[in-house]
Specification:
Number of helices: 13
Strand order of the largest sheet: 6-7-9-8
Structural class: alpha+beta
Number of strands: 9
Helix content: 40-55%
Largest sheet: 4 strands, antiparallel
Number of domains: 3
Distance between the termini: 121 Å
Order of helices and strands: HHEEHHHHEEEHEHHEHEHEHH
Length: about 350
C-alpha cells in the first residue's frame, strides 16, 4: 500500500512538471498498477505527512501499515527519489546581468574627452595669440595663408567647433612654422629671409651698435669709383648713426616741424636704418641732379637700392629720398629692380609705428 501511495505522488508531480513545460501528459490508470490503491489514500495524502522544523517533509509513523517497517530500504530509496523529483526545474527570475560598460568608465571617458577638448582649445588660442603678434608686421597679401589660418582659428573658437580644432591647429602651426623660419631675431634685431630689417615696425635696441658694415662700405667704394669714372662726383654725407645720435636728430626735427611732419622723413630713435651700419646718405639732394640720376640707374649693380622710392610712402613709411642707399647684396638688389618692389613689399612686411 505504501509503495502504491508513493507512485501516486510521483505521477502527480511528473504531471505538474510536464504541464509547466507545455507538454501533454497522459494520466496512468490505477488499474495498470500491480496493487489496488484505496481511494482514501489518493484523496488525503497530506494526512500521512508532517513538516519538520528544518522545512523537510516526513511521514507520520502512525500511518505506516503494520505489515511494513517504516525504515525499510525500499522506503528510503523511494523517498529520496521523491525529494529529487519535487525540485523546481525552472528559474522564476532571470540571472543578474553584469553591465559591460560601468557608469564609472563612461564618466571617466567623458572627463577625458572634455579635458582633451579643453587642452586643444587652449593650444589653439595660444597659437592664435602668437600669430596675432605677426599680423601687424606683415603684408596680408604676401602672407595670405597665415591670414586664412588665423581667420579659420578665430571662427572655430568663436563658434565652439571643437571637432575642427586639430585641423585648424595644423594649418595655423604650419603657417607659423614658416613665419618662424623666415623671421629670426638676433641681438634684438629682426632678419627676414636673412635680410636685416629696421623700419617703423621693426626696431633695434639701444645696445645694438655695429658701426659701419665693412662689406657695405667696400661695395660703396666701388660704386663711388664707377661714378667717378663716368664723370659723376659722389660724396658721402653720413653712414652709421647710433641710437643716441638719432635721438638728438629726431628731437630737433620734431621741435622744428612737429612730430607728425618729422615722422614722414626722420626715424624715431631705435627705428633708423642708419643704426644698422648698412645705410649711406649721399650728396644727391636734388632728384634731377647727376648724382641722383646715376644712383637710380646703377646703384643696384653694387648691391644697393634706393631705399625710399618715389610714391611708395605707404609701403616704406617715408617720403622719397633719392640720396638714401641701403645695402642688400647684388642678388637681392637685382631682384628688386626687376620686380620694381620696395624692400617691404618684397618681404611682405609693414612699416608702421604702434600707436602710443
Amino acid at each position: 500500500m505504501n509503495r502504491f501511495t508513493n507512485w501516486i505522488k510521483i505521477v502527480s508531480l511528473a504531471a505538474l512538471v510536464f504541464a509547466l513545460a507545455g507538454c501533454s501528459f497522459r494520466t496512468i490508470d490505477p488499474s495498470e498498477m500491480t496493487e489496488a490503491a484505496p481511494s482514501e489514500t489518493v484523496h488525503e495524502p497530506a494526512a500521512s505527512q508532517q513538516e519538520t522544523d528544518d522545512g523537510k517533509t516526513e511521514r507520520d509513523p502512525s500511518t505506516v501499515p503494520p505489515t511494513e517497517e517504516a525504515g525499510s530500504d525500499t522506503d528510503t530509496e523511494t523517498e529520496t527519489e521523491t525529494d529529487e523529483t519535487t525540485q523546481e526545474p525552472f528559474q522564476t527570475e532571470p540571472p543578474p546581468v553584469t553591465d559591460p560598460c560601468p557608469t564609472e568608465t563612461i564618466e571617466t571617458d567623458d572627463v577625458s574627452t572634455e579635458t582633451s577638448g579643453l587642452q586643444a582649445k587652449e593650444r589653439l588660442q595660444a597659437a592664435l595669440d602668437a600669430a596675432h603678434t605677426y599680423l601687424p608686421a606683415i603684408d596680408s597679401a604676401a602672407w595670405h595663408h597665415l591670414e586664412d589660418a588665423v581667420a579659420a582659428a578665430e571662427d572655430a573658437l568663436a563658434h565652439g567647433r571643437s571637432g575642427s580644432y586639430e585641423e585648424v591647429m595644423a594649418a595655423l602651426e604650419s603657417a607659423m612654422a614658416e613665419m618662424d623660419a623666415r623671421f629670426v631675431v638676433k641681438n634684438g634685431v629682426t632678419y627676414v629671409d636673412g635680410i636685416l630689417i629696421i623700419n617703423k615696425t621693426y626696431g633695434a635696441p639701444k645696445s645694438f651698435a655695429p658701426g659701419n658694415d665693412k662689406t657695405a662700405r667696400a661695395a660703396l667704394d666701388r660704386l663711388i669709383e664707377a661714378a667717378t669714372a663716368d664723370g659723376v662726383t659722389m660724396e658721402i654725407n653720413n653712414g652709421y648713426r647710433s641710437y643716441s645720435s638719432q635721438e638728438k636728430l629726431y628731437d630737433y626735427y620734431v621741435k622744428r616741424d612737429g612730430k607728425a611732419a618729422a615722422d614722414t622723413y626722420s626715424a624715431r630713435p631705435g627705428y633708423s636704418e642708419h643704426q644698422s651700419g648698412l645705410v649711406y646718405d649721399m650728396e644727391a639732394w636734388d632728384e634731377t641732379s647727376p648724382q641722383a640720376l646715376w644712383l637710380d640707374e646703377h646703384c643696384w649693380e653694387y648691391g644697393f637700392i634706393i631705399r625710399y622710392p618715389k610714391g611708395k610712402d605707404d609701403e616704406t613709411g617715408y617720403s622719397y629720398e633719392a640720396w638714401h642707399l641701403r645695402y642688400v647684396g647684388v642678388d637681392v638688389s637685382l631682384r628688386l629692380r626687376e620686380l620694381g618692389m620696395t624692400l617691404e613689399k618684397y618681404l611682405g612686411i609693414t612699416s608702421r609705428y604702434e600707436e602710443g
